[in-house]
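Exam prep: given the inputs below (a chain plus octanoyl-coenzyme A), describe the expected output before reading on.
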Amino acid sequence: MAEWKHLRLERGEGWALLTVSRPKVLNALSRETLEELDDALTHVERDGGIKALIITGEGEKAFVAGADISELSRIGSADEARRQAEFGQRIMTRIERLPKPVIMAVNGYALGGGFELALSGDIILASDKARFGLPEVNLGVIPGYGGTQRLARLVGRNTAKYLCMTGQMISADEALRIGVVQKVVPAGSLLDEAKSLAAELAKKAPVSLRLIKRTIDRGLETDLETGLDLEAGAFGVVFDTRDRAEGMEAFLQKRTPEFKGE
Ligand code: CO8
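Solution:
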């Protein structure tokens, strides 16, 4: 397995746990960390044994406290800043389009680029100690790894503006209330919850999971009629799989299906 400086990959039954590990700077995303993330995503994508991915941050304090501010402060030109934003956006989009479910286990501060990383996942589980925010406005910049776009699509225009304009941090419960987070759990059980959810997803039909993810994401970017068309097309594709035959047969035989992703 690849060796990374700032990432750790742990394998479980059908799932993998990727930990961003730069605890001295609250797991801030340096350029090198993003490059490693890019490599790790290739690894996860190619490994058929990984059916669901969990991403978390090292330690108890932070998920990811943003892009690395000391690195950002050294960017020399508007052009370089734009390219860096595009690079980070590309990684977040890779996570969003990974053909497997991605669970973000947010254990502490998810700020700036860290919140944007969380927003690129499919399901966000948060510890009761998690804090979410886009504080870029306090640094004289704006979110640059997809935050203005993904947050607005998720929670609506004005709530996104409120969070981006004030830079205010919100609690896990508030993030649950506005629909950013799907479940809040005690800090001590976050990883167990994430692993058990990943294990549950790993037993589902992989093609169904992939097409659910893609159909919802693509459908949200289009009008209802086109979205329904995408859904019907995907239904046709999934109907043709062996897993569909297995799923229906298992139901009729009153047994648990064994899906193979075919
Ligand atoms: N980058 C670099 N270092 C950081 C970061 C960061 N984002 N966050 C924390 N650290 C470092 C601190 O500097 C400190 O280092 P040291 O021990 O050497 O002084 C160490 O981590 C511990 O942090 P604190 O002492 O500050 O811990 P506190 O408990 O006092 O505070 C906070 C915790 C509130 C999380 C505080 O650390 C903080 O406000 N961090 C910055 C949060 C932030 O502003 N994030 C947004 C960054 S900008 C961004 O993400 C833009 C994304 C798009 C980029 C587009 C590309 C061009």
